[in-house]
Every structure is written in C-alpha cells, then in structure tokens.
Amino acid sequence: MLPYSLLRSIFFRMDAESAHHLGMESMKIAHRLGMLGLLAHSAPASPRTVMGITFPNPVGLAAGLDKNGDYIDALAALGFGFIEIGTVTPRPQPGNPKPRLFRLPPARAIINRMGFNNDGVDKLIENVNKARFRGVLGINIGKNFDTPIERAADDYLICLRKVYPHASYATVNISSPNTKNLRQLQQASELDALLDALKNEQAQLAQTHGKYVPVTLKIAPDLGTEEVLQIADLLLKYQFDGVIATNTTLSREGVEGLPNSDEAGGLSGAPVRLKSTSVIKQLSLALQNKLPIIGVGGIMDGLDAKEKILAGASLVQFYSGFIYRGPELIREACEEIQ
Length: 338
What we know:
alpha/beta; TIM Barrel; 3-stranded antiparallel β-sheet; 13 strands
C-alpha cells in the first residue's frame, strides 16, 4: 500500500469533498481486504478511565469525518482509542451548497461550511448496528437547519433518545458555525434550559435502559473568558459528564491572504491550536477536575496533543491533523502523552 504522504499528495490534487469520499471508501475497501494494517501504525496501549468509561488509549477521532457511521470498523483498525461519529440530526439533510470544504495547505488548515449534512439519526443507528466495533463510540448530535432555534431542544432530545442505547457517550454540538443561530445556544439563559432538559432526559433514559450513558457538550473556541466561565458554572450546576473544547473557529488569524482563506465557514487545523488550548486552560481552572475535558483543535503532532493534556484535558481528539498527517499521528500522540 502507498505511504500516506504519497496518498495525500494524490488526494490534494482533487476537490476536497470528492477526495474525502474517495479516501474514506478506499480505506473501507482496504480494511475489507486486510490491507489497512500496512498503512496503520499500532498505538501503544495506555488505558485510562474517564466518565466511567475505560479508553484503551486517550487519542480519539473527532466528529465530522464519519458523519453517518459508514466507516466505523475501518477507522477503528487505525488504532484510535475512541471514535466519535456524527454530527447527526433527527431528519436527513443535504447540508450547505457545494463547494463547502476547502484546504489551506501552507497553514495546515481546513475551512468547512458543511452544515450538518447527514442521512439522519435512524440511518446512523442502522450503520452502528452493522459495525463489528465494540470499542468506545461517541455519537455527536445536532439540530436540523430548519428547526427554529427556540425548538432546538426538541431535536437534541429526539437524537439523544435514539442514540442512547447505542453510544458509549453522546455529544451535544451547539458550537458549529455552519447552522444559523446555533451558537446562540451557548448563551447562559438558553444553555441553562437546554442542559436542564438534557439531564432530565438522560436520567429517564438511564432508568429505561438500565445503563448510564455520559453526555458531553461541545463548545466553540471563539468564546470570551466570561462566557467560558458561565458555561463551566452551568456544566457543574447540572452535573454534566464532560466538555469537548473546541469546535472550529470563525477567526482567520494565521491564514490571512492564503487561497481560500476568505471562504465562509469554520477554520480547523494548526491555526486554531492556541485558541483551543486557551479555552481548555480556562475550563480547567473553573471546573477544578470536577468533570473531564476532551481537548480538540489544531493537534498536528504529538507535542500538540501533549499540550492539550498539560492544559487540563483528559483525552484528545483530532480531525484535520488526521487529514494532513494520516494514521501516524495516532501513534505519535499516544506515545507523547503516555
């Protein structure tokens, strides 16, 4: 099998979204043929228990790469300690018009305005049931684009009810910049009501299914210090299980003047690293180890992963780093933060 650097050079000559689909399908075929091991590098075992879940290693795949759970088994074969699929919505939706995914190679960055394109929660569950993977699986949930923001909780509750029996943990995504008004839910008054509804539903589902499935909240890197502190207070108030920091940024700091830098959407990759780490540090001080932080944003090498852990994260995730570095990054991150 070709080395990842060569595969990347081939894919980077293609439209980003077309390359994504071709790459994922190729990975799936390679897995079926037993060839994926030639590309993957075994990650050292480094188990740790977070949110009551034992993770075989602390390095996970962030949501967004596998929106519908189509590639769970192939991704698991690469050595991730956990995989997060989604974001999924109650009803299928096409997302924003194409083109909507852009690479910025000089900055090792990606801009996307996908808009929660997915096949709907029922299809995702069907795919989860087909997968052989029995490791740690997070399912990231969102709202449909045409659900009024004042009814957003309804969508999250629909998704939570459906994914609950199938997820190791669920993530509530209120921080994508590509669904109109979604980030409004991070404001204290709206977040208070949403977290209250989610925790009440979680308690009922735990009783119904006879098991407790943790729920985490994914937040943006563009929050001010006061907003981060308000979110931390609410997470503690409702005894939330964890927080994922952070999603993509609306800032263009670090990519000014590059081709595609003026495209609308969320920026991920190396330029978001410091913003993400800053939010993790603020959360860590506010939460005082009372609930765990999953660090994501700009992890491009092992030292970046270690930086997140030193800032206060218990686990890390990446997506853009995986696109630029490939499976080697999993092993490298595991080794650096053992």
